[in-house]
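Lab notes, practical 5.
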Amino acid sequence: MAELQFTPSVASPRSFLALREFWKQFSKNRGAVAAGSLLLVLLLIAVFAPWLVPHSPIEQYRDSVKIPPAWLAGGSWHFVLGTDEAGRDILSRLMYGARLSLFIGFVSVVLALIPGIVLGLIAAFFAKWTDAPIMRSMDVLLALPSLLLAVAVVAVLGPGLANTMMAIGVVGLPGYVRLTRASALGELQKDYVTASRVAGAGSLRLMFSQVLPNCAAPLIVQGTLGFSTAILDAAALGFLGLGVQPPSAEWGAMLASARDYIDNAWWIVTMPGIAILITVLAINLLGDGLRDALDPKLKRMA
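Output from the prediction step:
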């Protein structure tokens, strides 16, 4: 009887080499590495905010209203970044606001990414019947200003956390549909798809097992950049009073409540603005680094 021979799996070494090559390319972009480190710190702060905050984000210290930051005259190290118009600690509210903003950004991207991938693949694989209806629907959504569309969705559904994420997901959907469709159409012209069809692979297997993994790189980059857009849209809706409702600490709502005090208590409006600026900038820099590392055409030369 012939002995059975087992061929060692090469998936793990290949995965390790691919990860090593990715890190080699990604680490060349020092801005992206720094941005990724900053985002990791923000994520840790968001996760462990209940144990890190010096005060409750909703507790009002009526005898400490509009206290300036500790390094200014009249400030106190008891409130490092000062207090707002209601006597609430700004640092604590910023840390809790990071939880909401990152959560909204992540869920909004997922809500747009998953349907976008499915619709994009359907439009590419069944172009004869589905391409025109799907893409014309996406063109209609793209014809509307993103913030106006988000406001319209929230106006229909009502303000709140869940509806904010749903509205931002709807706004981001066309980008993922168009990107997935374009990437899938390029992959369908390649030999491995033809070989899989000849071997008897069905459409579902081709879509999710063969084509989708080869479309992952641009989708990852788009998802990262969409993360920053979702945070900005959430802040805009919060500023308009259509996003997360008080007393929850959310950066856009903090900006809205502080706009009347910009002349005599600038720190109340400046601190959440800086938090939004730093977070969005870090995500965009990380997205640029991922693009350079994942796209062979854009990899930086050593």
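Observations recorded by the TA: The CA atoms of residues 25 and 131 lie 36 Å apart. Residues 1-11 have pLDDT under 50 and may be disordered.
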